[in-house]
Amino acid sequence: MPSPDGRTPTRLSGVPWLRWLRLPRQPLLRHLLFGAVAAVGFYLLTSSLSAFNNFRVGEIALYVIALAGLSLLTGTNGQISLGQGAFMAVGAYTLGVLTTHTHWPMAVDVLAAIVLSGALGVVVGIPATRLKGPYLAGMTLILALALPRIADKYTAFFGGDQGLTVNAPTPPGTIDPQRWLTWIQLAGAIIVLILLANLTRSRFGRSFRAVRDDEIAAGLAGIHVARTKVLAFTVAASCAGLAGAFLGLSIGVVNTGEFSLTLSIYLLAGMVLGGAGTLVGPWWGAIVIVFMPGWSNSIANSFSLGSAVAANLSLVIFGLVLIVVMMAVPMGIQGGVSWLVGRALSLVPGIGQPRGSRGPPDIATTPDITTGGG
Amino acid sequence: MNKEPHAKKGPRHVGRRRIGIVTVVLATGLLAAACSSNSSSSTTTTGGGTSSNNGGATAPGVTATSVTIGATTPLTGPAAPGYSEIAAASNAIFKWANANGGVNGRQINYIIKDDGYNPANTVTLTRQLVQQNNIFADVGSLGTPTQLAVESFLNTNKVPQLFVESGCNCWSQSTSPWTFGWQTNYTVEGKILGQYIKQNFAGQKVGYLYQADEFGQDFIKGLDQELSPTDVVSRQNYDAATLAGPMSNQIAALKSAGAQVVALATIPAATALALLPAASIGYKPQWVASNVGADPPTVSALLKSFSQGAAGATLLDGMVSDAYVPPEANTANPWVQAIQKVLTKYDPGAPLDGNTEYGVALGYTFIQALQKAGPNLTRAGIVSAIESNGSKLVSPGLVPFTYSNSVHFGYSGAQIATISGGAASTVGPVYTATINGPITVFTGTPTPPPASLLNLS
Amino acid sequence: MSLFINLSLNGITNGMIFAAVALGLVFIWRATHIVNFGQGSMAMFTTYLAVTLLDRHLNYWLAFAAALVAGLIMGAVIETILIRPLRGKPALNPVIVTLGLFILLEGMAGSIFGIGNRSFPPAFSQAGLTFGHTKVAFSHFDVFILAAVVVLMLGTLALFRATSLGLRMRAAAFAPEVARLLGVRVGRILTLGWALAAVAGSLAGLLVAPTVSFSPNFMDLVLVYAFTAAVLGGLDSPVGALVGGLVTGLALSYVGGYLGSSLEPLGALAILMVVLSARPEGLFSRPEPRRV
Fold this sequence. Notes:
Low-confidence stretches of chain C: none
Radius of gyration of chain C: 19 Å
Distance between the termini of chain B: 65 Å
Shape of chain C: globular
Oligomer: heterotrimer
Helix content of chain B: 40-55%
Largest sheet of chain B: 5 strands, parallel
Largest interface: A-B, 91 and 71 residues
Shape of chain B: globular
Strand order of the largest sheet of chain C: 1-2
C-alpha cells in the first residue's frame, strides 16, 4: 500500500515484507483507513456468522461504544464514573419514548438519544468538575441507582416494568434484519472510535491528559480545567447514550431492569480490564462483557452441579478473572497484548527493539488513547 | 489517575501504529474464534437435537428419542432467592417422566439459563436457546419484564413460549399466538380477594401495599373492580429495585390512614418486610395477600427470627390469601403427596414449598401438553394441543385451565385460603373469573394424579 | 405527627447502620486510599458464617463474636493477598479488584450457603417500645443497633486519639514516608486498617441481617448508601461517617415516607449533589492544601 502522504521512509522500509504496514501520517487519514479496514473485516465476519453470533457482534459493538466513552473519561481524563449505565438508560429511554410517541425517522431518534444523554452529561459534569476520584465515583454510583427509578415512578410515560417497545430498523432489500442491525451498530462503533481517535489526537486530547496528570499545572498552562472535564463527561455520556439506544434496538424493549447497578459496575470493570485510556481496550472489554458469562457458566456447568449452584459458581469465576487480570496484567488486556506483540516484533530481525522495557508496560509507559493503543 | 509523565514520541511512534494493526487483527480473530467456539460447544449440548434428517425429527429440538426445551430464570442476584427453586423442581418432574420412558418415547432435555432477572440477559440467552441450542420450546421462563422482552422474538420465530411464570394479564394477546400464561392472572386474583373483602369486612377501611410494577398494578386493578373507592383509604407501594429493609414508612402511612384491612401485592420478602414493622409498632390489620407473597413456608422462614424466634409463623396467622394449586400443608391431598415424592426422588434436598410445588405442577402441565401433541411432535402441534384440550389438561390445579383458541391464560380462578399455625388451608367455594367478567363458583372436581405418580417410591 | 416520629426513628436506625459500613470505608480509605466495593459482600459473608454457626446451635453471642473475628481475619488476608501487591500500580486496579471481590464473594455465598431467602435472628426483641399508649417504630433491637454503633464510633475515636497505635495509624495514612523513617511498620498498619474496617463491616452485617430478607445480596444497597454517607461526610473522617450516615438515613426515610419509595435514591442523589457542590470533599474532611 503506497503511502498517500509520501512520508519519509522509516526503519521499517528496510524490511520489504513489512512495507505494507506503512500508514499515512495524517491522523484523520490514518483513522479513516483503520475504519475502512475494520469495516471490510466486519463485513466479511458478519457475512459468515449465524444470526445469533451476529446478534452478539452487535452487542459487542454497542458495549465498545459505551466503553470507549468511559475509557476517554476515566483513562484519558482521569474521572472515575460508575454512572455510565445511567447515561445508557437515558439514551435507551429517549429512543423508546420517541419511537412510542412520534413517527420520526429512526436516525433522528438515535441522534436525540445522543444529544439528550450528552446534555445530562453536562448537568452531571459541572458539579463533577470539583470532585476528586472517589467522590465522583460515589455521586455517579447513586446516579446509576436513582435515574432508572424515575421510569419506575412515572409508569404511564415510561411504560413501567413492561417498558417501551422499540422496533429494529427495517433493512433495505433482502438484507437479513439481524445482520442489518449489527451493521448499523458496527458502523456506529467505527464512527465513534474514529471521532474519539481524532479528538484525543487533537488539542482537546492533550488537554484531557494534561488535566488528568496535574490539574494545577494544566491550569497554569492555560487550559480551562473545568471546561475540559465537562467536555470529557459530555463525550462519555453521549457515547453511553448511543450505546443505550443501540441496546434498546438489540433487545427490542426498553425497561428499567436492563439498567441495574450491575451494568454500570460491569462497564467500569470491562473498561479497565480491556485497558483504560486506549481505544482497542474497549473491544477486549466488550468481548469480556458479552462472552464471559457464557464461558464461566460452561466451566461451572462442567462440574455437574445443580443449576443454581453452577450459576453462582460462574460468578465466582468471573470475579476471579477480574482479580487475576488486574493483578497479573496491570495495564489490562490491551496492555498485555501490546507488550506481547511488541516483544514478538522485536524478535523480527531488522526492526530492532521498539521499546526498551523488560517487563510488561507499567504506568510509566501507559498508552494514551490511540487507535493503536500500544 | 495516571500521574506519571508520558512516554516520549519519536521512532517508537511507528512501532505503536504497527502494534495497533496487529492487535486489531488479533482482536478480530479472537472475536471470530469466540463466536465459533461458542457455536461448537452448543452442538454438544443439543446432542442429536438438530433439525437435520435423523429419524423422528419433526421440529427443531426434536428427535425420535428426545425433545430439548429451555428456560431463563433468575439463579443469581436479588430476584434469585426462592425463584431459583422453580426450574429445578420442573426438571424433577421431567426426570420422573424420563425415568418412565419419556413422553411419546422422547426424553425431555431441559436447559436452564440464569438471566438474573435482567431483560437484556433474557434476550441474549433466549436467542442462544433458540438459535444455538435449537430448543423446541421455551418452557417455564420466569418474570413479566423479562418474558415481555422476548415475546416478540419468540412469536416471530414461531417458537412456543409456554407457561410463562408470571400472572401478568398480558399473556393472552391475539398478536402473540405462540405465548401462553400458566398461573391465575393477578387481576383475577385481585377480584376474588376483593370480593372476599367486600363480603367479609364490609364497611371497613382498606389500604393497599403493592409492588410498583405490572404485578402490583394488575392485582389492584382486580381489587378496585370489587371495592368501593371510598373504602380505600391509602395506597402505598414499593419499588422492588430499592427494597433494602423493613417497609416502616409504608406501614406507618397505612396505620395513620386507619386502614383496618391491608391488601398486599408483594413478593415473599416484601411480605415479611411489611409484617415485621407492623408487628413492631403493634399494628394489626386484617392482612389479605396475593398468592405470590403468601406462601407460609417461604414467608415464615423469613419471619422466623422475629423476637428471637418467639413469633415466627404466628405473625402470619389469620392472613387471608388465595390458592390455585392445593396448599402444600394439605398433606392429605394426593397431588401434594405425589409432588413430595417427586421432589424427594428427583430434586433431593429441595423443600416442599410454594415455589417447588409450582415448578412441579408447571412441568407436569408441559408433560400433559406434550402427550396430547402426539408422536408427530411439531411446534404448531403442541400449540393446538394446548388450545384444543384446554380445560382437559390434567394438573394439580384446584381450577381448570382456560386455554382455548382465543384465550391463553392458564388457571381460571382460585380458592380462598386462610393461614393459621404456619399452614394455609383452603376454605369456601372455588371461584373462576375473567378479567372483565363476573366471578362464578366452579363446581367441578379436580382430577387426581395418575397411579404412576402416586405409587412413586 | 406520629408518621414523622416513626419516619425519624426509622431513619436514625438505618443511618446508624450506614454509618457503621461507612466507617469501614473510611478506615480503608485512610489506610490505603482505596474505595472498597467489596465491603458489603465481606460483611455478608461473615454474617453467613455466623448464621451457619447458629444453625449448629452455637451460643448467639459466640457466633456474633466469631463473625467479627472472621471479619478481622478476612480484612487482613484480603489486604495482604489482593491489595498490597497492587501498590504503585494504576489507581484504578485496586478498585476493580474490590469490584471483583464483590462479585466473587456473592457467588461464593450463593454456591456454598445457597441462595434461598432466610432469616437471621436479632439479638433482642424487634417489638416496638411503648411510650404512653403508643408503640413507636423503635425496638430493643434498634436500641442495640444504636448502642453498638456508638460504641464502635467511640472505640474508633479512642483508638485514633488516645493510643499510640492510633497515632501510628494516622501517621501511616497521612505521611507514610515519614512514618516509615520513624520506625512505624507501615505495611502492618495498613493491614490493620483493612482488618478493622472489615470488623466494622461485619458488625453492620450482623445488625442489618435480622431486619431484611437475608440472601447473598442483602448488603448491596446498604453499601451504596453507606458509600453515599461516607462521601457526604468526607472519606477520611470517622465523624463524617456518622453524620453522613444519619443524614442519608433520615433523608431516605423522609423521601420514602412522604414522596414514595421509588424516589429514595433520587433524594440521596440530590443531597449528595448539594453537599458536594458546597464542599467537594465532604462535610468533615480537612481541605488539602493545593500543591503545585
